[in-house]
Write a structure and sequence with these properties.
By secondary structure, the chain is mainly alpha-helical. It has one domain. It has helices at about 10-15, 25-30, 35-55, 65-90, 100-110, 115-130, 135-145, 155-165, 170-180, 185-205, 210-230, 250, 265-270, 275-285, 295-300; strands at about 245, 290. A two-stranded parallel sheet has the order 1-2. α3 (about 35-55) packs antiparallel against α4, α4 (about 65-90) runs antiparallel to α5 (about 100-110) and α4 (about 65-90) crosses α11.
């Protein structure tokens, strides 16, 4: 077996640290909430609805094109925020009812991207299961995008990539990313996004709002995708595990919304919804250290040489076994041709779903 690529290592104390939380406290923090999820998702959709209303109010004035430009930016920011609520929905944090959870996640978060719920869940859970190994689908995407994620990379490189994305020079990478969730996990899962879009186009046609379609798709390419890529630099790039960061307030709304800067805590306790991740950080304590976001970005300039999408962890590394039944009954046939191994979520914590399995992942 090949040795994993050298990485920016944590301190020995941080590597040995295993975050634990009292199991009763953890059980409380893990509870889904339709209200919490719904309020955040509705707020994100207001970034779409309000600009649409504004454009219609000034349609017959010279301000129309400026209002459309504002709508384009707001749509892209909203899409990025909705994608992160889709992430919480994929972890079944919108509702205890699985069918309701998946319907809401699809209707308001994933089908507008033409992505199936089951297909995205398969992609994301395999990312947890095979984090930073050859089986990690995020690494497959980064390999297709080479040399986009190679290290070392200075701030100028990251900013240049962002500007190139805004200029549509790497839009093919967006299509690669979209393909990761296809096909769906069933025929109906695959077809529901198509039904959503056929219905939406029909509605927009009859209410004479077809202008929304080109603005929506253009915003995906020149706003959503550049922000999405910029955020990915804050998560797993150049590390064996996941960066534990603190984000300045002025980046949280558009770059790291919905507590996304608590990505370390998410990987260790993936069934805790985003609104409770700050509590998880407080309970874990200061080990491993929380670094300012820009300190992590600055470290990339002096990082070891790591190719775009190169694994930084061995697939056969000794980690607790991952049981796919713990993550919403993910069937093994979703992974044809993958190497077997015990790669699991960050630090080896599996993604658990049932209350009785919490004990294996919490302090007593």
């Amino acid at each position: 077996m090949e040795t994993a690529t050298p990485v920016l290592e944590m301190s020995p104390a941080a590597v040995e640290a295993k975050p634990v939380i009292d199991k009763q406290v953890l059980r409380t923090l893990m509870q889904p909430s339709l209200f919490q999820w719904g309020v955040r998702t509705a707020g994100d959709w207001m970034l779409v609805i309000v600009p649409i209303v504004l454009v219609n109010l000034v349609w017959d004035s010279p301000w129309r094109w400026g209002a459309m430009g504002l709508a384009l930016v707001c749509f892209g920011v909203a899409q990025h925020r909705l994608a992160l609520m889709a992430h919480d929905g994929s972890h079944r944090q919108a509702s205890r009812n699985k069918k309701l959870n998946d319907f809401l996640t699809g209707m308001f978060c994933l089908w507008p991207f033409a992505n199936p719920v089951g297909g995205y869940r398969r992609f994301h859970f395999n990312h947890h299961r095979y984090l930073n190994t050859e089986g990690d689908p995020e690494l497959h995407h980064k390999q297709k995008s080479a040399p986009a994620w190679q290290l070392p990379a200075g701030k100028k490189t990251i900013v240049r990539r962002f500007l190139e994305d805004v200029s549509l020079l790497h839009v093919k990478e967006l299509f690669h990313l979209a393909q990761n969730a296809r096909p769906g996990t069933s025929k109906i899962d695959r077809l529901l996004p198509t039904f959503w879009w056929l219905s939406m186009v029909t509605v927009l046609y009859f209410i004479d709002q077809l202008w929304i379609l080109p603005v929506w798709f253009l915003s995906t390419a020149i706003v959503f995708w550049p922000i999405f890529r910029l955020r990915i630099w804050t998560e797993h790039v150049g590390t064996h595990d996941v960066h534990r960061i603190h984000a300045p307030w002025y980046l949280r709304y558009w770059l790291l919304p919905h507590n996304t800067w608590y990505h370390y805590e998410h990987h260790h306790f993936p069934q805790v919804p985003c609104w409770n991740l700050p509590k998880v950080r407080a309970l874990i304590g200061p080990v491993p250290a929380v670094h300012p976001l820009f300190a992590v970005i600055n470290s990339y300039d002096h990082a070891p040489s790591i190719g775009s999408g190169a694994p930084t962890r061995e697939l056969g590394e000794k980690l607790p076994e991952f049981n796919p039944r713990n993550v919403a009954d993910v069937p093994q046939e979703w992974e044809p041709g993958r190497k077997s191994g015990t790669g699991a979520g960050t630090g080896g914590r599996a993604i658990y779903h049932r209350d009785e399995e919490i004990s294996a992942h919490a302090g007593v």
